[in-house]
Write a structure and sequence with these properties.
This protein is about 30% helix and about 25% strand. By secondary structure, it is an alpha+beta fold. The strands form five sheets. Strands 9, 12, 15, 16, 17, 18 and 19 form a seven-stranded mixed β-sheet that branches. It has a four-stranded antiparallel β-sheet with strand order 1-8-6-3, with no helix packed on it. A hairpin with a 2-residue loop joins strand 10 and strand 11. The chain starts with a strand and ends with a helix.
Length: about 400
């Protein structure tokens, strides 16, 4: 009995999607719920699981094609065993031999995780797992890859390079010096959508950025004193982002226009703080939203951020996780940025940029001392937010971070 594989129901705001890549070919066997294909919308990448265990008997849509909700893209014959042609046996055996020990035989690895491990020739036993019962997730593997692994040593410089460094003209032909090639790669739907939103913000708002600096001594001392007990009690690390989220929420209560959004000629004020936290992923920037952040503790905020970050990097984040939001925080400091002017996340009226913490000479009580300082920047829509509210919002965030007791007392 053949079962149809259909495109999942797309959100109302998404008209169509792009079929990115098939993970199975005609004739391949599949397990129930094993990922068959990745489908990319304007905002997220969806995995389409096999509805039953069996064999793929027909693939109806090629990679790169545009698909719509409910469209049939493949047929799976339930219960059928895969037919492997003799010509394919040798490559399959070679792939199994090249795979890291335990990678293909570890039944604790999900298919998408196993595929990623094998593609990058990784040893899963060397990657800490954050999933249930210590299982390895796709996000764990991607994070491991992002952090970088040792690479093979580069071969000795070619004669042409050696001659150039000595100041003489290279005698080898151009082909010997290496090919000069250009590669044309279409933007993904996600990257295209990000570009559209950035251009929309530039062309439809009156963006202006104000900045200040924060002495991070108090927060760093508090974090250093309690981080071990915090992690032991709550099962999550204490980072800086939760302090910034709480400080921002207190500031937004005082200056609600900074927490507002625009819709045509109307200003919509929000009596809650749904704070988006920008996360960099291999596919592009995503902004998962921490709902009702003003009601959450530092531990609850850290757990929410960590969960969203793993889902975003693992490609399992849902559209509902990244929609909405009344205010956004982006942290370029994790990549070393000293200062930037963030772009608004439409239709929000403001976004806060965090930056790298650097020890600098500052004057405190008439004395020059070294302190860990961070520049913070608030970009706001000057159509509805005046400079006064923007600057006072920054000052409120600065005061809360330099005296964290304010966050507990809500003053």
């Amino acid at each position: 009995m053949s079962i149809e594989v259909k495109v999942p129901q797309l959100p109302e705001s998404v008209a169509d999607a792009t079929l990115v890549s098939w993970h199975k070919k005609e004739g391949d066997s599949v397990a129930r719920d094993e990922n068959l294909v990745d489908i990319e919308t304007d905002k997220v990448v969806l995995e389409v699981p096999a509805p039953v265990a069996g064999r793929v008997i027909k693939v109806m849509v090629v990679n790169g094609a545009t698909v719509k909700s409910g469209q049939v893209i493949a047929l799976v014959e339930e219960g059928a065993a895969a037919v492997v042609a003799p010509a394919r046996a040798a490559p399959a055996a070679k792939a199994a031999a090249d795979a890291p020990a335990g990678a293909s035989g570890d039944d604790k690895l999900a298919p998408s995780v196993r595929r990623l491990v094998e593609e990058h020739h990784l040893d899963p036993s060397n990657i800490p797992g954050s999933g249930r019962d210590g299982r390895l997730t796709k996000g764990d593997v991607l994070e491991h890859i992002e952090k970088g692994r040792p690479v093979a040593a580069k071969p000795a410089a070619a004669p042409a390079v050696a001659e150039r460094s000595a100041g003489t003209a290279p005698s080898a032909p151009a082909a010997a010096r290496g090919a000069r090639e250009d590669r044309r790669v279409p933007m993904t739907r996600l990257r295209t959508r990000i570009a559209e939103r950035m251009m929309q913000a530039q062309s439809t708002t009156a963006m202006l950025t104000s900045s200040n600096e924060v002495d991070m001594s108090a927060v760093m001392a508090l974090r250093s004193k309690y981080k071990d007990k915090f992690e032991k009690d709550h099962g999550v690390k204490l980072g800086f982002m939760s302090f910034f989220v709480k400080a921002a929420c207190e500031a937004l209560k005082k200056y609600p226009v900074v927490n507002a959004s625009t819709e045509g000629n109307d200003v919509i004020y929000h009596d809650y703080c749904d704070v988006g936290v920008a996360v960099a992923t291999p596919k592009g920037l995503m902004v998962p939203v921490v709902r009702d952040a003003e009601l959450m503790s530092l531990a609850e905020i850290e757990k929410a951020i960590a969960g969203y970050a793993n889902k975003a990097r693992g490609g399992t984040i849902g559209l509902e996780d990244i929609t909405g939001g009344t205010f956004t925080i982006t942290n370029g400091g994790v990549f070393g940025s000293l200062f930037s002017t963030p772009i608004l996340n439409m239709p929000q009226s403001a976004i806060l940029g965090m930056h790298a913490i650097k020890e600098r000479a500052v004057v405190v009580d008439g004395q020059v001392v070294a302190r860990p300082m961070m520049y913070i920047a608030l970009t706001y829509d000057h159509r509805i937010v005046d400079g006064r509210e923007a600057v006072l919002t920054l000052v409120s965030i600065k005061d809360a971070l330099e005296d964290p007791a304010r966050l507990l007392l809500q003053i």
